[in-house]
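Today's session is about reading a structure prediction critically. Students often jump straight to the picture, but the first step is always the sequence itself: look for stretches that repeat, for charged clusters, for runs of hydrophobic residues. Only then move on to the predicted structure, which in these notes is written as discrete structure tokens rather than atom positions. Here is the chain we will use throughout the hour.
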Amino acid sequence: MSSHTNAPPSLLGFFSDVPARWTLRRCAAVGRGVRARGRIWVHGRGRVHIGDGVVLDGAHHPIELHALESGSEIWIGDGVHISGGASIEAVVSVRVGARSRIGSFSRLMDNHFHPLVGDRHFRPPSAPVVLGEDVDIGARAILLAGARVGDGATVRPGTVITRRVQVPEGGKARGLPAVLE
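Below is the predicted structure for this chain, in token form.
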């Protein structure tokens, strides 16, 4: 019998979360039952909030959660699964709804960080990225500033979503530029 089996249930839950809590120590809030495998890079001056039962699988490729400015926020809802190589970058706000899945090497970013032409030191305005609940984001998909994906929607692998194409509830998007199916 192991030495901690007589411990109160509240202590058992705490100790099972210790590795994830250590990995995510730079987050503003970490829910219960969070599993973090491999390399998870949390950085920036902003706040990262992670809900209950979230799985961050950076076992083979690191996951980046970057809340750039002091007012930046990343909200990851309960039961979300984020695969390796994914990157979430916020200057203002990125919100991922409960039970959503973010595929490997996907990027969610609320700012383009510099214009394609002209003064590359100028940062364009940010627009929040919002994913509803039960959303499935395919591998290597990119959601740019202002992207909105409704509840239960699917974004196919390699799709690029901008503010111009809003994916409705239960909708499906594919392609570059994205089109609704």
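Discussion point for the tutorial: Confidence is low (pLDDT under 50) at residues 1-5, 10-16.
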